[in-house]
Design a protein that fits this description.
Length: about 160
């Protein structure tokens, strides 16, 4: 499986500019790339801090990602980082885009609560199974501290 990891420098609050950076990295993917992965919260920039307290900001990120997905039907699958609201709860999420649509939302489970990483103030801990099957491969999708503090059993269950 060929992965492309985007090393970009998103700007906090610049959703349009950040998606342009992601699109550029997506468009430059070598032929045969199976999956492209952006940084954590790349759509809104990191750390977005109190911007996340504005539902309108989070919803604008979500709508921009939905439009972005529709506009990029022919590109390889992409996972991008974006705040995501599900049932009135805001998650730090990794969004899988395939064939012009959002096909899965993976949520961060281990939220840091120190220094500028006061994510428990903004996000709900995810409790979803973050296993992705793509092209016959099983991938565990983790977001930052998920990999540092959770056991494999916690991550899969």
């Amino acid at each position: 499986m060929k992965l492309r990891l985007l090393q970009i420098n998103p700007i906090v609050g610049d959703v349009v500019g950040n998606l342009a950076l992601i699109k550029k990295g997506w468009a430059e993917a070598p032929s045969g790339t199976d999956l492209i992965i952006s940084p954590e919260l790349a759509v809104c920039g990191y750390p977005p801090l109190d911007l996340l307290k504005e539902d309108s900001f989070v919803y604008s990120c979500m709508k921009a990602v939905e439009r972005f997905a529709k506009e990029n039907r022919d590109a390889p699958p992409l996972i991008l980082g974006c705040p995501w609201i599900v049932n009135n709860a805001c998650y730090n999420a990794a969004i899988l885009i395939e064939q012009g649509a959002i096909s899965h939302v993976f949520t961060k489970r281990a939220l840091p609560n120190y220094d500028v990483f006061d994510e428990k103030r903004y996000f709900i801990e995810g409790n979803h199974n973050n296993v992705l099957t793509l092209g016959g491969h099983h991938l565990l999708i983790t977001i930052c501290e998920d990999l540092w503090v959770l056991s494999p059993q916690q991550l899969i269950g």
